[in-house]
Amino acid sequence: MEDNSSFFANRTSSTMETLQEEHNTKLERTRVLKNQIKDVKRQLEETKNDNVYDKIEATKNLSEKYKQLREEYNLLLGQKSGTKQLN
């Protein structure tokens, strides 16, 4: 009986460690994405001073990048909580 209980305890411990590592990885990725989102927002604000053509192109590119980052960020949040969250 003791062998079975120690087997399950080790298995549970291993599973918990794996889940903790996945959680930590997702938390770190979430932090990185938050910082990238802030940087893109800042860059979008800075494009207000560029000439018209450059401003349009930069805004379009940064908006697309921002959208992609937000989607990935929201997917990660949804995976962490078990449900998809909306802004």
What topology emerges from the helices and strands here?
Layout: H1 2-46, H2 52-81
Helix pairs in contact: 1-2
Provide a descriptive summary of the structure in words.
- Residues 1-18 have a biased composition (Polar residues).
- Residues 27-79 form a coiled coil.
- Residues 1-27 are annotated as: Disordered.
- Keywords: Coiled coil.
- With 87 residues, the chain is mainly alpha-helical.
- The protein is 86% helix and 0% strand.
- It has 2 helices and no strands.
- It has helices at 2-46, 52-81.
- The protein is rod-shaped.
- The model has no long low-confidence stretch (mean pLDDT 82).
Key structural traits:
about 90 residues; mainly alpha; 2 helices; about 85% helix
Shape: rod-shaped
Mean pLDDT: 82
Order of helices and strands: HH
Secondary structure tally, helices:
2
Radius of gyration: 21 Å
Report helical residue fraction: over 70%
Oligomer: single chain
Structural class: mainly alpha
Strand percent estimate: under 5%
Low-confidence stretches: none
Q: How would a crystallographer describe the biggest sheet?
A: none
Please give the alpha-carbon distance between the first and last residues.
51 Å
Write down how many β-strands occur, each being a DSSP E stretch of 2 or more residues.
Answer: 0
